[in-house]
């Protein structure tokens, strides 16, 4: 029983990381139909922000707290830069954004390599997050994992509330649901796009801060993560936050369970087969907006 | 709600060639083109290039074969496949398994299996690859079969566009992780290396390596011929129609899923063939050549050369691979920046690729003539 619980928690914490990454994607890919392959490098930008801040500030705990808003802004501005320079020209060609942002990701990776060096860098976790929590005698979970889970849930709650209640959220939803109607109603859709992209990219920065607690920080740290995060958004349903949340945790748990019963290498194939099978049942993802479109 | 509909592709003249004018030319022009390509590949290159350069060219031509398939599936069919590495890898591994078994001799285990020492006998799924006929057929048919199964599941359920691209990429990641994990039977991260012979010919002999080059060049010409036939046929018109308006084609009574499936399966077969030829040409196949990164790099040459044409993808792939060799050895850092720009600039500013430059120039001179 303990074993199952501990695997369950591993799965949930994999899911929390996936969720943090996929949240930003569900805005840029889900709401704006932009496939941002440079999302992984925005994550790395957030992680390097922690590294730089720790060089400047001495306290690990303080620097992590300051890093959260700073990384949000750094990654967000980087994202807006990409949007303004490149993606804006490609809204009619969503597939091409994928190739272009892949190019951006290559360039950003090389920038990281040239500035911070190719090897992974280290950060110190704050002392409050280095320990672990003994739930029972056998069941031990690490505090940093709990912190990431809480961070992911807070981010989801903030994003949901923001989209539902704030004027900006209302505008974002309006542009997503009917861009032309929003435009003739007097919304500056271009500005809304940029703000959406800023928030989506900023969330990648937050994910990067969280990842410094559990893994190495390196130039290519994001590439390995976003393939699965994209799957989460696709399977959850485009533009559906609740779908993203459910699928992120389900995928995390399935992965940890399958990995435990088989091996990592077999699990990767099984998870893929499960996803293709799932799409047979729900080709548009778990939740879909009911529309009159033929897709 | 606009996001779930088909992307409305702007009528960009450089990206939507009239089939019979550009890319897949008319009969006589095509024959001349094939003739020139054959002269360049079989007459010029072997004379001008030394053994080492010719070997490199053989490798580039393998990548060009993959690119022709991507041009068909993506340029003509609108399916951005980021998973051609899967099919390239299946073809490559099928060929390499056979060659490893031949190198080891009858009844012996391949060297890496003895090295890792986990196995006493050959795994059952290795055994059929001892037969040259089975292995050769598998290099092309196995990728096509996988593409058929996956395509049936995906296209029938109308999963397309970005969803398709992401799924194909995820398959790539899954296969690479799977191969790395099975070190005892697939060679793991190292892959299948150190291939000595090719159907009885010693690959260390420079003369035999030249022969391999000729085989690859012949395969590229054959693949170009197949793609040309497909593009100029009624099927080719239908494929472009599905790319530009899938629902309209459905209402006209065709099943777009089948149309896309054919292009996807053919492209997979071409990638498999390329993988199979890559093994004797380069002497190695490993997960590093079939994962997410190499798979998306297959696409870049196609985008640079011109996705919708016939020769554009092939020439683009060769040019990009050549630039990689030339630049990455001397300036590894600069090459990465350059590669990033290669993804960005042509796609943003020249969606039709370099091939469309020729069309644009021709149009401009035609306009001038009219004005005069």
TrEMBL record, chain A:
InterPro entries: ABC_transp_permease, ABC_UrtB_bac, BCAA_transport_permease
Cellular component terms (Gene Ontology): plasma membrane
Listed Pfam families: BPD_transp_2
Membrane-spanning ranges: 6-27, 60-82, 146-163, 195-217, 229-253, 260-281
GO biological process terms held by the UniProt record: amino acid transport
Keyword terms, alphabetized: Amino-acid transport, Cell membrane, Membrane, Transmembrane, Transmembrane helix, Transport
NCBIfam families found in the cross-reference section: urea_trans_UrtB
Annotated protein name in UniProt: Branched-chain amino acid ABC transporter permease
Organism: Actinoplanes cyaneus
Highest classification ranks of the organism: Bacteria, Bacillati, Actinomycetota, Actinomycetes, Micromonosporales
From TrEMBL, chain B:
Gene Ontology cellular-component terms listed: plasma membrane
Entry membrane topology: Multi-pass membrane protein
Keywords: Cell membrane, Membrane, Transmembrane, Transmembrane helix
Superkingdom classification of source: Bacteria
Record keyword Iron-sulfur present: no
GO molecular function, one term: branched-chain amino acid transmembrane transporter activity
TM helices/strands, residue ranges: 30-49, 56-74, 80-99, 133-155, 161-180, 212-231, 261-286, 298-323, 335-361
Protein name listed in UniProt: Urea ABC transporter permease subunit UrtC
């Amino acid at each position: 029983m303990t074993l199952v619980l501990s695997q369950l928690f591993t799965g949930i914490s994999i899911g929390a990381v996936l969720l943090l990454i996929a949240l930003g994607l569900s805005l840029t890919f889900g709401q704006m139909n932009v496939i941002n392959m440079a999302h992984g490098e925005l994550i790395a930008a957030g992680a390097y922000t922690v590294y730089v801040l720790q060089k400047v500030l001495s306290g690990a705990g303080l620097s992590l707290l300051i890093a959260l808003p700073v990384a949000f802004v750094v990654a967000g501005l980087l994202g807006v830069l990409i949007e303004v320079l490149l993606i804006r020209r490609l809204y009619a060609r969503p597939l091409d954004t994928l190739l272009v942002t892949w190019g951006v990701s290559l360039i950003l990776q090389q920038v990281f390599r040239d500035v911070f060096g190719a090897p992974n860098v280290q950060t110190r976790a704050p002392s409050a997050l280095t320990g672990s929590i003994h739930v029972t005698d056998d069941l031990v979970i690490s505090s940093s994992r709990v912190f990431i889970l809480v961070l992911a849930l807070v981010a989801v709650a903030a994003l949901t509330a923001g989209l539902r209640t704030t004027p900006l959220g209302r505008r974002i939803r309006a542009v997503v649901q009917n861009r032309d109607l929003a435009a003739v109603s007097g919304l500056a859709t271009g500005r809304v796009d940029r703000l959406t992209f800023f928030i989506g990219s900023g969330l990648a920065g937050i994910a990067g801060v969280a990842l410094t607690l559990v893994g190495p920080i390196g130039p290519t740290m994001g590439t390995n993560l976003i393939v699965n995060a994209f799957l989460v958004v696709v399977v959850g349903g485009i533009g559906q936050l609740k779908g993203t949340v459910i699928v992120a945790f389900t995928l995390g748990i399935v992965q940890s369970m399958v990995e435990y019963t088989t091996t990592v290498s077999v699990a990767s194939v099984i998870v893929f087969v499960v996803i293709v099978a799932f799409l047979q049942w729900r080709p548009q993802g778990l939740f879909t907006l009911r529309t009159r479109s033929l897709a | 709600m606009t996001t779930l509909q088909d992307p409305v592709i702007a009528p960009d003249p450089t990206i939507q060639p009239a089939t019979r004018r550009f890319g897949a030319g008319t009969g006589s022009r095509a024959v001349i083109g094939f003739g020139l390509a054959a002269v360049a590949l079989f007459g010029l290159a072997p004379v001008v290039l030394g053994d080492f350069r010719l070997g490199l060219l053989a490798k580039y031509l393998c990548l060009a074969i993959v690119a022709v398939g991507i041009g068909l599936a993506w340029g003509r069919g609108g399916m951005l496949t980021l998973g051609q590495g899967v099919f390239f890898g299946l073809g490559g591994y099928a060929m390499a398994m056979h060659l490893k078994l031949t190198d080891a001799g009858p009844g012996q285990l391949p060297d890496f299996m003895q090295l890792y020492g986990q196995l006493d006998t050959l795994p059952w799924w290795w055994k059929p690859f001892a037969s040259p006929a089975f292995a050769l057929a598998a290099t092309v048919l196995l990728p096509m079969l996988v593409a058929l199964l996956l395509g049936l599941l995906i296209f029938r359920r109308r999963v397309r566009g970005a969803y398709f691209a992401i799924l194909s990429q995820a398959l790539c990641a899954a296969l690479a992780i799977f191969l790395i994990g099975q070190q005892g039977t697939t060679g793991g991260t190292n892959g299948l290396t150190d291939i000595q012979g090719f159907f009885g010919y010693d690959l260390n002999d420079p003369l035999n390596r030249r022969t391999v080059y000729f085989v690859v060049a012949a395969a590229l010409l054959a693949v170009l011929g197949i793609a040309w036939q497909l593009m100029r046929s009624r099927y080719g018109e239908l494929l472009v129609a599905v790319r530009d308006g899938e629902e309209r084609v459905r209402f006209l009574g065709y099943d777009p899923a089948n149309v896309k499936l054919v292009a996807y399966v053919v492209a997979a077969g071409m990638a498999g063939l390329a993988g199979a030829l890559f093994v004797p040409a380069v002497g190695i196949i490993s997960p590093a050549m079939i994962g997410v990164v190499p798979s998306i790099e297959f696409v870049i040459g196609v985008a640079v050369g011109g996705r919708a044409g016939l020769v554009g993808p092939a020439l683009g792939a060769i040019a990009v691979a050549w630039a990689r060799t030339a630049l990455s050895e001397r300036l590894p850092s600069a090459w990465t920046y350059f590669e990033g720009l290669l993804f960005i600039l042509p796609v943003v500013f020249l969606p039709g690729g370099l091939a469309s430059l020729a069309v644009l120039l021709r149009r401009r001179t035609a306009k001038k003539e009219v004005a005069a």
